[in-house]
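User: Some background: our group keeps a shared notebook of sequences we're curious about, and every so often someone picks one and asks for a predicted structure to add to the entry. Today it's my turn. The entry only has the sequence so far, pasted here. Could you supply the structure so I can complete it?
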Amino acid sequence: MKIKFGTDGWRAAIADSYTFENVRRCTQGFATYLINNGNAGKWVVVGYDKRFLSEKFAEAVSEVLLQNGLKVYLTDKATPTPVISFSVVNKKACSAVNITASHNPATDNGFKVRDKNGGAIDPEGLLQIESFIPDSFELDQAISVKNAEEKGALVKFDADIAYIEHLKSLIDLEPIRNAGLKIVVDPMWGNGIDWYQCLLGGGKTEIIEIHNVRNPIYPEMIRPEPIPPNIDVGLQKTIDEKADVLVIMDGDADRVGIGDENGAFVNQLQVYALLAYYFLEIRKVRGPIVKTLSTTSMLDKLGKLYDVQVVETGVGFKYVAPKMMELDAMIGGEESGGYAFHGHVPERDGILAGFFILDMMVKTGKKPSELVQTLFEKVGAHYYDRIDRSFTGNRSEKEMLIRNANPATIGGLKVEGLNDTDGFKFLLQDGGWALIRFSGTEPVIRAYCETTHEECVQDILKDCLKIAGLKA
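Assistant: Of course. Here's the predicted structure to add to the notebook entry:
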């Protein structure tokens, strides 16, 4: 079978196409890519999440890298993706492989790759890796994790220690620890378990953690993605506990979601705009903002207000990370709830992003709903929603159907332009937009929109589905 990389690596169903044989093939392609780019004999960080057999898949990856003469730093436990990314820089490694399917359903696992900066590999690099993946692979039976560890070619390590020290250089946790907040944390059965308790425990702030044991079937949610309805249990817990905020991380902790003190979801576009506002207004930082075309136009308005550059890319950190490095950006992010920050690795970090939101609450004395209101007073109220629909049939035919639709209006709003850089983004008369895009990892069409007209949101999404030939 042909292994294809999506927006953030390769993901597939366990025991279907995600097998040990195919993971080894994928690793061989990556090893060839590394060696061809001058990294023979260098160190590679390998990590994994809490999904079914992830630690065993990580060992299989390590063995293939070792067979190619590369050396391996293997995490000693399931480790958040941002921690693995930081470890690449901290260990002066040439790259990383992370066994995780992030927010995908429980049936899946994945293979993420990172460059020497800890960021996503650009699209050209991913195509090269794909081209090097062999049709079959045979492992040298003399190679094992145990033998390599004895020879010093593989080192198991605790990646948390150095990351925590670095995190403390980016944010002062003491004011949050002693603020007396009540925080519900939902790590979604994943790699974010215990992180907030570890870093904020022992003070006046109370941490209430749910879904905080390893459970790779992800009960009480469809998938470990920090959006409704997966977060409904956490939102209800926030109400029941009369908590100040809900902080949610996805399965590998590189994305964050926020619930307000009333048990309402603060959507990911609002969170991104809040994070940008936090740096611009509260921290008085200036620098470019990088955003994917599927995220908020509130960033463009903030850019004009604070005289900073806002740059739009295709969807995925394979576009965001390189652009952040090029521009030395202040912040970069995407609609999925992943945000990266200056002074850190150019990679999504749900742990750090959550701490920045908490710091914003402490410094302003405002709860999440009040922060959203403050943001809207600056840029006007913006409304967002998204629908994901599975589809069958030929993708090219669907794309042609959308391209030829040429709608005059969507959701009752005049269409003023089309951006087809990555999907089909229709620019609307109110400065809002509607986007129809194919998932890079699943047979799914996503319809998104942002508008200043709350009453138009659902009509916009219904029209997007119709344009794509799907039932509304």
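Suggested note for the entry: The chain is about 35% helix and 20% strand. The chain has a mean pLDDT of 96.
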